[in-house]
Specification:
Blueprint: H1 2-42, H2 70-82, H3 95-102, H4 107-133, H5 137-149, H6 155-167, H7 171-182, H8 189-199
Helix pairs in contact: 1-3, 2-4, 4-5, 5-6, 6-7, 6-8, 7-8
Length: about 200
C-alpha cells in the first residue's frame, strides 16, 4: 500500500513539474511578445486622430432644467462642461494598441478623451437615477437612452432603462437593448446581456 502511494506521489510530482515547466515557458513567451509589441508601439510616431469616433452630447435632447435638486444640478453642470470636451469610448483597447494605432505621443491625449467618457457615463447614470427617484421617468429615459447610444457599459443604466421599458410594456425595446449590449467591447458585456435576458418575461 505504501509503495503504491509512493509511486502515485512520484508520478504526481513528475506531472506537476512538467506542467509548471510548460506554464513558465508560456509566460516567458507571453512576456517576450508583450515587451516586443510595447517597444514597437513606443516607436510609432504621432498620427492624425481624425478617424476617432467622437461623442457629441445632444444638449437639446436632454432634460437640462435646473429646477431639480442640487445633486441633479451638479450632474447637469458636469454634462454641460463635458459638452465642450472631446470624448471617446476606448473601452477594450489596450494602451499598447492605442500607441500602435495612433502613435505613442498621442497616448496622454487619448487617455484624457477616455477619462472624459468614463466621467460622462458615470454622470449620466447618476443623473438618470436621481431623475427616476424624483418621479421624472421620461427624463430619466432620455438620459439613459443617450448613455446606451454612447456605448455606456454601466450595468445599472441598462437595468434601469429595461425596467422603464417593462413598466411601459415596451418589451421590444428591451430586445434592442440586448442587441446594443452584445455589441459592447467592454468586459461587462456578458454580465449586462445576461441581466437583460433575465429581465425578460
Amino acid at each position: 500500500m505504501n509503495l503504491l502511494f509512493l509511486a502515485s506521489f512520484i508520478l504526481f510530482l513528475i506531472w506537476f513539474t512538467a506542467r509548471m515547466h510548460v506554464q513558465k515557458k508560456k509566460e516567458k513567451n507571453f512576456n517576450a511578445d508583450f515587451w516586443k509589441r510595447e517597444a514597437e508601439a513606443n516607436a510609432v510616431r504621432r498620427k492624425p486622430l481624425d478617424q476617432l469616433h467622437y461623442i457629441t452630447i445632444p444638449l437639446s435632447g436632454l432634460p437640462l432644467n435646473d429646477s431639480g435638486s442640487e445633486k441633479i444640478r451638479e450632474c447637469i453642470r458636469t454634462i454641460r462642461e463635458l459638452s465642450d470636451q472631446r470624448i471617446v469610448n476606448l473601452n477594450g483597447i489596450s494602451n499598447t494598441d492605442l500607441k500602435l494605432t495612433y502613435g505613442a505621443p498621442n497616448l496622454p491625449l487619448l487617455s484624457e478623451y477616455d477619462e472624459n467618457f468614463t466621467l460622462l457615463i458615470s454622470t449620466l447614470q447618476k443623473w438618470a437615477s436621481l431623475l427616476y427617484d424624483a418621479g421624472q421617468t421620461a427624463e430619466a429615459q432620455a438620459v439613459l437612452e443617450f448613455a446606451v447610444s454612447a456605448g455606456s457599459d454601466i450595468s445599472g443604466s441598462y437595468k434601469l432603462l429595461a425596467s422603464i421599458y417593462r413598466d411601459h410594456q415596451e418589451e421590444q425595446k428591451i430586445q434592442d437593448l440586448i442587441r446594443s449590449a452584445s455589441e459592447l467591447s467592454s468586459p461587462m458585456k456578458d454580465i449586462i446581456v445576461r441581466t437583460l435576458q433575465e429581465s425578460c418575461p
